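Why does residue order matter? Because the sequence determines the fold. Keep that principle in mind as you read this record.
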Amino acid sequence: MIKLDKLNHNIIRILSRDGRISNSELAERVGLSASACLRRVQDLERKGVITGYKAKLNRAALGHEVTVFVMVGLNEHRSATAREFEDAITLAPEVRECHNVTGSVEYLLRVEVADLAAYKKFHADTLGALAQVASITSHICLGSPKDERA
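Structure:
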C-alpha cells in the first residue's frame, strides 16, 4: 500500500470528481504551485495510484434507463465453474460490473438496460441460459443519491 499525505488525498478526491480539471485549477484548489501539483499528479500516475481518466456518462441518454443489481448463485463451488460463469458474463454488454462476493451467493452484477422488457430478456436468455447459474435475485434500482462512478 502506498502512503499518501493530505495533499495527495485532496488531489485524488478532486481528480476523481473532475478528471478534466486543469493543472493550474487543481493546484489552486489544493494550495500548491502548478509545477509542484503536476509533479505530484505524475508521481501518483507513475506509482499506479491514478490508473486513468474517464468520462462521466449520462446513462439515460445512452438508453440505459434501468439499473438492476443482480445476485447470482452458482450450482457448484469449483474454480472451473466460476471461470466458466465469468467468461460467459464478460460477453454480456448489459453487465456493467461483475463482482465475486462472499455471503449467500457468489456474484453481484450491476446490469444496465433500456427497460424492464430488456431486463426480462437478459434474465431469461442470458443468465437463465447459463448452466452454472443456480439462483438469480434481482434488485431494481429506484435511484442513486450517491454515485461516484465515471
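The two ends are 24 Å apart (CA to CA).
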